[in-house]
Design brief:
Blueprint: H1 2-6, H2 12-28, H3 35-54, H4 66-87, H5 93-97, H6 105-123
Helix pairs in contact: 2-3, 2-4, 4-6
Amino acid sequence: MNFYRSVSAKSSNIQCCIDFLEQICDDIDEIIMFRHEAVRIRAVLCGYILALKKSKIGSNQDDDDLEVLTDVNNLMTAISRLSISIKNITSPTWENHALNVSATGPIDDINEALDSLVVPLVQLGLNVVKYEPNKVD
């Protein structure tokens, strides 16, 4: 039982972020473009989820300070941006606007969203790996 307590979110805001990231991982199964990148992105997101679950954020009153709340809010904003970027390359969304978007636009949006996602994670004191695009994909 102690194991599960040690890898569960201590804050409802953090749990909300975890749930949102897990939903993005599910949405990745539905994308119709950039599949290789998506598989690697999902692996990185799973690392972020685990880091959030193991974090002590929300376990003491110091975490109610304005700086932590701001970082958590920034994290949620970044997750939302990533979610929109991922949903833009799922069916039928992609099919409806593919001809109006540059070929690299969607993956550029996803990379920018991932860059903005790692900032609040680091500011919250989490040791996370930044996603790096692979030239081979």
